[in-house]
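User: Can you predict the 3D structure for this chain?
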Amino acid sequence: MKKFLSLLTVSAMALASLFAFAGCDSNSGNGGSDKDFTVGAIYINSQNDTAGYTYAHHKGITKAMEDIGLDTSTQLKIVDNVPEDDTAVANAIDQLAGQGCDIIFGISFGYLNAFAEKAEEYPDIQFSHATGYLSNDTNFNNYFGRIYQARYLAGIAAGLQSLACANNNIGYVSAWGTEYAETCSGINAFALGARSVNPEAIIHVKQISTWGDQEKERQAAEVLIDTYNCCVIAQHCDSAQPQIVAQEKAVFGCGYNSDMTEQAPNAHLTAPVWNWNVYYQLAIETAMAGKNLSEEIGNYYGGLVEGMVDISPLSENCEPAAESAINMARQRMTSGEWDVFSGTKLVFTIDGDSAELNEVAEDLKDNEGNVIVAAGGPSVDDGVIQGSMNYYVEGVIAE
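Assistant: Here is the predicted structure, written as structure tokens:
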């Protein structure tokens, strides 16, 4: 009887341990369960935006968390409408740290100094900053993507539209110009894409000197249309205002960050878009595994191959040959055999609904005639695209 009771006790203990194990969440990097892991995010605009830059990041973070199985209603802490001011950003970080965040994302360029300082103050929190260049070797990295590749593809759609309109003037509302490689490389890539189908295309750039200001974005688009007779309006700014103006003025447009066809159904062609969830899932899972982003990921720079960037679905406003030409250019980039800023130029010949591609060895020049890459040469280094591209290519005019 004692042996029976002993065996019964052992069995009960084993069964209890089994149930306890089955009921436990897997361990995460914060030393607790997945349900304890908390994500923090600092946004420059509102988390309730329905289009644009902050909207794209918020959509990426929430999708990544949902795919991982985290509860965005309880495990995501947000401080939004935070300006690019070191004190404001530092206060937002302190707030998120006080809420127990294990990883904190900051989405705007001007957050970088506060992130660098706070990463030292909170060594147990992982910090990840978008669009910047600062990082450390332990708990602070940066992330961005080859959005210039998507801008090249959007440029093809714009160039074809300018041909159809018999108007070589294309407008571009840009937050900044040559001061930042981010904006400059995007403008250049878009211009090269447009000129691959319309070699006479001129890209008129109107700088608003801020990452986002809806009134300034609207005014710049109006000037580009009314003063420079632009038939397509592209943009590197936060809101859909340039596309809305394009529709009001009965011209066409290429948005940014999100598909803006809903905001301008009669004008919008396509938009370079971010699939931020690709990075956010990688970063969150890395942090949950107890690993440092700096060591495991480093400074992230994904492109079309990784699915980090792309263009939104072509709208019915696009010319019929757009899909054919864009698919060929996409294939050349994803194959790894060609990239945008090289000494090989893609030249498309349009025939009805289709396009024929030719590759021509040709000097890549700036708009002052200086050779950037000699004919047949490889694409410029990533460091140039990300940090020191401070010139416009042929066909770009700063207005």
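Residues 1-32 have pLDDT under 50 and may be disordered. The first helix runs from residue 2 to 23.
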